[in-house]
Amino acid sequence: MLENFTFVGHSGLDGFGDYGDLSAHGNYAYIGSRCSATHQGGDGVQVVDISRPNRPRLVSKLPNPAYTRAEDVTVLDVRTPSFTGALAVVGIQACFGSGHEAEVVPGIRLFNVTDPAHPALLGHWDLPQGTIGCHEIDAVQRADGQVLVACARNLVDHRNSKGATALHLIDATNPAGPATRADWSLNADPGQGVGCSAVQFAHSARFEDGGNSVYVSYWDAGTVHLDISKPAAPAVVSTTKITPPDEDGDNHSMTLAHNGQWLIINTEDTSPADCPGDSASGGWGEVHVYDNSNPKQPVFLGTFSTSDSRSTRTDGEYTDHNTEVAAHDQFFSSWYSDGIVWWTMTEHGVGTQRGQFVPPPNSDGSSSEVWGVYIDKIHHVILASDMSNGLWIVKPDRLGTF
User: Are 35 and 96 in contact (CB under 8 A)?
Assistant: First the structure.
């Protein structure tokens, strides 16, 4: 399906067929990988030359150990006394079902990708063997020169620590010797959530305010805004729970829009699959928008959903996953079986869909599942990572400003 999008290009990458999130930097896209049906993992981060978006070309990989997944990745330019160039930060997790969960070393890997065709490992920050690892990560260089990495731990690690293990802030100013700056947790009981996915854990973290804030998407416990102007001493600014109005309360990820005036919360609510036949659990996930003019007390503004996500159909997964923002109020969401959805919202909280791209079905007839979305402001295109079929590149029609 192409609605107000133009198809530009596609790469099936290396054919591994189990891909994760994506990032981009300059003329290159970086697509993470998961474990595959064999649970072996080890496929690395795919590095793709997109200088000609209609002809994307795989040029290298950022390796990860066997029996691990390199699911989440971000790339940024840094300049420090010990390193100047393009830095790729990759989160490493153990693969469930591999039989080697207790042997692998999860954590963070840091790569020099100044020459993306010839990446080089600079350093690593390790978690103990037997833990699962960093489920989602982010990185930023602050105005004071510090390079910070956020590691939000896997749900299993939360459960095993009874909620004490949640978020790590890591100083990677010297990528060859990253060190922990702070460990932080709400100390919430992981099993005391609400709805079908009744858990509380720090699913993801995202830096804002030039690295002086980090927002932790703490699933049913809410989206927690932390002041990290002093990184060693995170302080809670606010907690935004989406229950009510949402019945399941999932806070999967976030971003800010309108120059920080809006807080966008993605739910990844999979209630129709988790609780089939339970009418009280509602439909699939939708995006919640809050007025963030007063960061200490965000106020509910409105929601946006697709027609499929308002249903309980089970021939695919019709929930939002991640959202990125262009031109202050143009939102592009990865929406699993609904592909990439382009939408906007008024100051009064009224959401409108502007376009949609759904990749073709898989070879077995199952629906595609779009995991990641990235707004490429250099090439004026939208990048999407399809879990089975790799990288898709489309261009929104008549969007003048990125």
Answer: yes
Q: Residue 12 carries which side chain, given as an amino acid letter?
A: G
H or E element in which residue 233 lies = none
The token duo for 127 is 């978690």
Structure tokens at 311: 């249903």
Strands 287-291 and 262-266: antiparallel
Measured in residues, the chain has a length of 402
> What are the tens digits of pLDDT across the range 222-237?
999 999 999 999 999 9
CA dihedral for 196, 217, 40, 55, sign (positive or negative): positive
Which phi-psi region, left, alpha or beta, contains residue 91 (left: φ > 0; alpha: ψ -120 to 50)? Answer: beta
Regarding pTM above 0.90, the answer is yes
Neighbour-count burial for 51-77, b at 16+ CB within 10 Å, e otherwise: eebeebebebbbbbbebbbbbbbbbee
Q: Residue 4 is encoded by which pair of tokens?
A: 């107000």
**pLDDT score recorded for residue 204:** 98
DSSP string, 239-305: EE--TTT-SS----EEEEETTTTEEEEE----HHHHSTT-GGG-SS--EEEEE-SSTTS-EEEEEE-
How confident is the model at residue 364, as a pLDDT?
87
pLDDT at 88 over 80: yes
Rounded to whole angstroms, the Cα distance separating 331 from 359 reads 19
The per-residue pLDDT for 279 is 72
